[in-house]
Amino acid sequence: MSPVDAVALLLAIPVAFTLGVLYWFMVRKLTARFQWRRGPLLLVYRDLSGTLGSSRLLQPLYDILKLWKKEVVVPPSARRTLFKASPYIAAIFAGTAILFLPAPYGCLLSGFSYSLVVASYLLVGAMLFIVLGAASSSSPWGVIGARREAELFLAYEMAFIVSIFTAAYMYRSLSIWEISINQLKSLPGFLANPFAAILLFLAALGKLHLKPFDIPEAEQEIIAGPYTEYSGKLLALLYITKLLILYSLATLIIYLFTPLALYCSTPLGATLHIILSLAVIALLSLLHAANPRYRIDQALSWYAKTAAAFGLAAVLMAASLKLMGVL
């Protein structure tokens, strides 16, 4: 590995975290605008406006830094080792997945033959340890959140797996970089198989707990769900994990269904990466703002029917394109 590649890998997680902060700010900001919520920057008394500052662009970062300085409180009846280790392991898994995804400034390890498999398993592992940490908290709210997350996990992961491996089948590779590049030889993925692209988008809604699939974190019902008993650095690590997963999903959507990898390591590639990611974030925010929360049975039924229909259509479309020699 050359020094340049080593530096690129070292920068991958800080860059992903920075963009994750930006993306989550966009989710919050756009959701508020779509719902016509104005917020304190516009409604506060004029003589107090200076205390709020002029922007909330870095508010997700401020929240994490504030938590990082606070005390960690572990419930006396919790399984301490698993409770404390789970946020660290989840953050490590989510951070390691970043290395196998293309970055705005380079392709990193996305050219590895099985980068899609490795990245997807690491993202699954991150979600799994969030569930395990909540289940070990001994809090009824944490356990209910963990159970809801586990049930929803089975639904959205099936959609996620069908979508990404349909893209792998269409473009004859398990390398994210090769899947993206191979689209130059035929059709871009979002045109060749829009069903698979939509399915990955729907899976992202569940993974990120955005409405209508925010059941595990339903504040009005179960406090904060899996995060209820977490505090201090442990809660900050869970928020960091969420930001890294947000970045990862946006990156997967744009690289698996567009030939963007052609422009890796170029200014144009970096610009397109961020613009397309923000477009994905805007669509996620729109759906988050427009939908009410499903009950867990409604969410499972929806994934079993609607997402399954998109999955079946995606597989049939891929098989048809292969038989016709289009791909």
Protein architecture, described:
- The chain is globular.
- The model has no long low-confidence stretch (mean pLDDT 85).
- It is 69% helix and 0% strand.
- The protein is built from 13 helices and no strands.
- By secondary structure, the chain is mostly helical.
- The chain has one domain.
Helix-strand topology string = HHHHHHHHHHHHH
Can you give the mean pLDDT?
85
Query: Could you tell me the strand content as a percent range?
Result: under 5%
Structural class: mainly alpha
Spans of at least 5 consecutive residues whose pLDDT stays below 50 are none
Largest sheet: none
Assembly classification: single chain
Cα-based radius of gyration, to the nearest Å: 20 Å
The tally of domains stands at: 1
Number of helices: 13
- β-strand number: 0
Estimate percent helicity. Answer: 55-70%
Overall outline: globular
Ends: how far apart? 34 Å
Summarize the topology:
Layout: H1 3-34, H2 40-43, H3 59-68, H4 80-99, H5 115-135, H6 140-170, H7 176-182, H8 189-192, H9 194-207, H10 219-222, H11 232-256, H12 267-290, H13 296-323
Helix pairs in contact: 1-4, 1-11, 1-12, 3-11, 4-5, 4-11, 5-6, 6-9, 6-13, 9-11, 9-13, 11-12
Task: Give a summary of the structure in a few sentences.
This protein is mainly α and 327 residues long. The protein is built from 13 helices and no strands.
